[in-house]
Amino acid sequence: MNSVLKCLIGLGIAVSASLPAAAANLKRVLVLQSNGYYSKPWSEYAKAFRHELEQQPNWPVVIQTFPVVLAPDNDNAESRFADFLNALFPSDPPDLIVAFGGPASAFVQRRRKDLFPAAPTLLAAIDERRVQRSALSENDAVVPIWIDIPAIFGNILQVLPDTGTIAVVIGNSPNERFWVREMESQLEPLKGRVNVVFWNSLSFEEILTRAASLPSHSAIFWTQPQIDITGAVHEGELALRRLYAAAHAPIFSHDDSFFDGEIVGGPMTSVSQGSRTAAAVAARILGGEKAGEIRTPVLPYEAAKFDWRELKRWGIPESRLPAGSEVRFRPPSPWELYRWQIALICAVLLLQGGLIAALLHARRRRFHAEVQSRQRSAELAHINRFSMAGELTATIAHEINQPLGAILTNAETAELMIKSPAPDLQGIGEILADIRRDDMRAAQVIGRLRNLLKKVPLELKQIDVNDVARETMQFLSALAIGREVNLIGLFTSMPLPVKGDPIQLQQVILNLIVNAMDAMTGMPSAERRITVSTARDTNSADLFVSDVGSGIPAEKIEEVFEPFFSTKPQGMGMGLSIARTIVEAHGGHLWAEKSMGRGATFRIRLPLAALSK
Fold this sequence. Notes:
By secondary structure, the protein is α/β, with parallel strands linked by helices. The chain has 18 helices and 19 strands. Helix 8 (238-246) links the parallel strand 8 and strand 9.
């Protein structure tokens, strides 16, 4: 001990001689911390205090920190250490002495008369119960804390309600023996509820062995052993890490300087709060205020804080934590890690959703418009068929009158034959057969007319273009004879299956043939000729309606399909427009071409359908 003190005194004198004491506004602060340089929590208080005080803008400050490590109950060692500190400042005392923790504060109060009695003193990070109030002078200030033992142990039982044993890891120095007695007194109400055991009479190696064999539903309360039963001093974080590795129970503490990966958490004294308050009081003293007139209330606990990793390790649900607790070391959520990326993706998705909704709305409106358009087209087609039927009235009447006249003649003949004395039954039978044939012929004419005038929605089914063309030509045969037009059909031998409505396609062909007849009005009857032909391409069926009329001017060849365009004096100009609409509704095309000789050719192209088996 003597050689160590001599070295420290020599070093201190050298350091003191090098200080810029001549600077009038320089403030010198002597910091004494309990136990070793790395002994928590006081080492953390001293470090944070230095940082806070050095931020003061009013004057420069020089801070010298020394640990107070003394053999228990050794007055001679204390005296020599006080001499060492006095040797550091041979001419001028420090402007402020700050002691962190119970052992350092007790040393300062015991040696106050020998240790710069005129210098102001600040006792910090010391429990209110360890302050010797009777020994305080008007030159002493205190920043006390309060280790709330019932709150600490109550927190353990709240988050771990099944706990049966709490082991207290503590040393055997005089300061630590005081705390063993204090805890035994404060925890008296918990007898019968939990078994509290104190390991102050064990070496640290024995503590590790006991920690490894604790029974289930146990917990450990850690306060860094200052001096164990063997006299060994345990500084820094190594001791806590060794205990954490060996123990099979969660570890709790009274001070947040240990809250760095091994401690579950709870209400704890705050290093940042205590050092900040101590630095503020120190600045007031260095600024000229009387230390004894500065009254600082006991620093309360901040909100309880817990280590998320330890909560998960020991299966502690967050619902058990005290209200207002803070959970730290929680892995950042995807939102915290990728906030801007997620926001951008959500914005894009919202924009995309809005565009999709707008497109769906537009599609719905388009669908309704198409339905209405088809309905109107069907109405116009129906009107067009009525108009066409009007034009065919004379032909239809002629076709019906022929079978009706034949029926009347045959009926009169049969009546005469029946009245004869010897009726010819065979002849009567032949007459009845003729009547039946003519009746069916009239019925077919009426049936074709009804189909033409029928108002039905578009009904797509598989039909053959050749069959539709033949039936239309048969329907118009009488009109062709009446107008002295040679109606020629040239149909391919290959089937032309398409998906379509036979009535509407028949209307298109009928319209084209009637228009062709109108185009040849005024021509000699011998020259009037209309050719209806079909052909098959790879994927389509083609139908041609050609005439030898006056043709269509090149500049009008597309205009003829526009609504209300007509070359006939009495025409409405809707026939070809309706015809093109019907063909396009079937997925096809209708257009006009100039014939090689005279006249014009209208061409219908429809997509082929697969042949049904």
